[in-house]
From TrEMBL:
Species this chain originates from: Flavimaribacter sediminis
Superkingdom of origin: Bacteria
Native organism taxonomy: Bacteria, Pseudomonadati, Pseudomonadota, Alphaproteobacteria, Hyphomicrobiales
Catalytic activity: (6S)-NADPHX + ADP = AMP + phosphate + NADPH + H(+); (6R)-NADPHX = (6S)-NADPHX; (6S)-NADHX + ADP = AMP + phosphate + NADH + H(+); (6R)-NADHX = (6S)-NADHX
Name of the featured protein: Bifunctional NAD(P)H-hydrate repair enzyme
CDD domains attached to this UniProt entry: YXKO-related (cd01171)
Database matches in SUPFAM superfamilies: Ribokinase-like, YjeF N-terminal domain-like
Cofactor binding mode and count: Binds 1 potassium ion per subunit.
């Protein structure tokens, strides 16, 4: 069974999706009934033997979901109590219908105290959170977090921005989050992912055509997004049809990073991989290389000579390379010769303050530039984008991709890939133990190896990030970077996902 692409939609786009569904004849309150039912079902499934449920209801439609869930749980025989933030008489529209259908006592949120054995439904704020949480809501959120009782969040843990995954003042820490129709960026971007607990995506009867009409080129990074673009071996494939990856080594004492990248590039399928080493580091590299070849590249003239061989079609520059003019010069020569370049680590830092020069080089015909910054490198290369904290990691990566004509792999436990056209994907499969020395070098090699095989840029970057996480999961918690390449899955395993 081949599963479909998984779109991720912003809260604003979700509002448009709701309106499309309602305009097509679906009754708005019906959506709220379905949303409340999904929350109630989750409570019964996971906490059915709790002593009771306390439903914390906000002043908007998120609160409405809470009243619906409370009614359904009460009808199922569970003891339910509703607490309102503000005067429930002021509720309007569907939320007012839900309050009336609840029809039982509504207590003030001021009077709520967490109670052992009971479950909390968090229906204070969802997609409509526009500003920092304040007042009694802060006190209650902090009390619930401190009490450590099960919390089921309606749509989003209250206080979490569905757009950016950031906390607005304070936020509840949920055990489970039930969202509706499609996940939001805040469910995957950190710290949001940690605050959501287990994420459930409930079908509330919104037709998929309404979701598809409003998706804005953002997906969860999963194999359906790129598996059809993976390199495929044909009976007549030979090593040169599988591409030739060149990985630049640093000096005598900085050679390991390049070898990690080179091994990953070979393991992911590049036909040939050559470590491009300064003469001073040849002995160190030669002592450790077998299948991977070695060639001396000291200066620009050596590199120009190598670039005359069109079979060298992809390069990794940066791991252990050193920061400075030489890295900039090499990157510009490679892009100028119309090759794929993965600019990583020192390669990225070398362009801090020279960002326009990089964009100019990336615009050269046939050049494909990948930039793979972690947070610190991103801030060095794109200080203005990074300092705009109101924009999500997705939006920041998109801006960086547009500005540099590059495919940006903005790394972290929530790696975001973005391309200049605005397509973007969020990765959620990286285990915490992937944060280890040499992990980034391996990712750069995977990407260089896929690019060498001619995989289109956006898909190659998404595949590299996902494979990197998958290999780490397979290797387990004692992972060191050397293990990653040996734990890559065969492509055939998920081509039929
Ligand atoms: N649309 C649909 O069809 C469906 C929608 N569904 C549900 O609706 C939810 C979205 O509902 P929503 O748009 O009413 O927003 P919601 O999250 O309830 O918050 C808005 C209220 O909170 C207030 N408020 C905001 N920030 C605040 C703060 N910091 N501190 C204090 N107050 C603050 C804000 O006040 P205002 O800013 O207007 O003064 C307003 O009163 C969505 O997440 C999902 O659960 C489902 O039923 C499925 C069908
Ligand atoms: K909520």
């Amino acid at each position: 069974m081949r599963t479909a692409l998984e779109p991720v939609v912003t809260p604003v786009a979700m509002g448009r999706i709701d309106r499309r569904a309602i305009d097509s004849g679906i009754v708005g309150y019906r959506l709220m009934l379905m949303a409340g039912a999904a929350i109630a079902a989750s409570v019964l499934r996971h906490y059915g033997d709790a002593a009771g449920v306390d439903v914390l209801c906000g002043p908007g439609n998120n609160g409405g979901d809470g009243y619906v869930a409370a009614k359904m749980l009460q009808t199922s025989g569970m003891c339910a109590a509703c607490y309102s933030l503000g005067d429930p008489v002021k509720l309007a529209g569907d939320a007012a219908c839900a309050r009336d259908d609840w029809g039982d006592e509504i207590l003030s949120l001021e009077d709520y105290v967490p109670t052992d054995g009971r479950v909390v439904i968090d229906a204070l704020f969802g997609a409509g959170l526009q500003r920092d949480v304040e007042g009694v809501a802060v006190r209650v959120i902090e009390a619930v977090n401190a009490f450590d009782i099960p919390v089921i969040a309606a749509d989003l843990p209250s206080g979490l921005s569905g757009e950016s995954g950031r906390v607005r003042g304070t936020a509840l820490r949920a055990s489970r989050t039930v969202t509706f129709a499609a996940p939001k960026p805040g469910h995957f971007l950190l710290p949001g992912r940690d605050l959501c607990g287990v994420l459930e995506i409930a079908d509330i009867g919104i037709p998929s055509r309404c979701i598809e009409a409003e998706t804005e080129g953002l997906w969860l990074n999963r194999p359906p997004l790129w598996r059809d673009a993976l390199p495929r071996l044909a009976a007549n494939s030979h090593k040169y049809t599988r591409g030739h990856l060149g990985v630049f080594s640093g000096g005598y004492r900085q050679t390991g990073a390049a070898r990690l990248a080179a091994i990953a590039g070979l393991r992911v399928g590049a036909g040939l991989v050559t470590v491009l080493s300064p003469a001073s580091a040849n002995a160190a590299n030669a002592a450790h290389l077998t299948t991977i070849m070695l060639r001396t590249i000291d200066g620009g003239a050596d590199l120009d000579g190598l670039l005359e061989d069109m079979r060298f079609n992809s390069f990794v520059l940066g791991p252990g390379f050193g920061v400075g003019e030489k890295a900039r010069d090499f990157a510009e020569r490679i892009l100028g010769a119309g090759r794929a370049l993965v600019l990583d680590a020192d390669g990225i830092t070398s362009f801090a303050g020279y960002h326009d020069q990089l964009a100019e080089a990336a615009a050269k015909q046939d050049a494909i530039l990948f930039i793979t910054p972690h947070q610190g490198e991103f801030a060095r290369l794109f200080p203005q984008i990074a300092s705009n904290a109101s924009r999500s990691k997705v939006e920041q990566a998109r801006s960086a991709a547009r500005e540099t004509e590059a495919i940006v792999v903005y790394k972290g436990a929530d790696t975001v890939v973005a391309d200049p056209s605005g397509r973007a994907a969020i990765c959620d499969n990286a285990p915490p133990w992937l944060a280890t020395a040499g992990s980034g070098d391996t990712l750069a090699g995977l990407l260089g190896g896929l690019a060498a095989q001619g995989m289109p840029g956006f898909e190659a970057a998404c595949a590299a990030a996902w494979l990197h996480g998958e290999a780490a999961n397979r290797a387990g918690a004692r992972l060191i970077a050397e293990d990653l390449a040996n734990n890559l899955p065969a492509f055939s395993e998920f081509q039929e996902y």
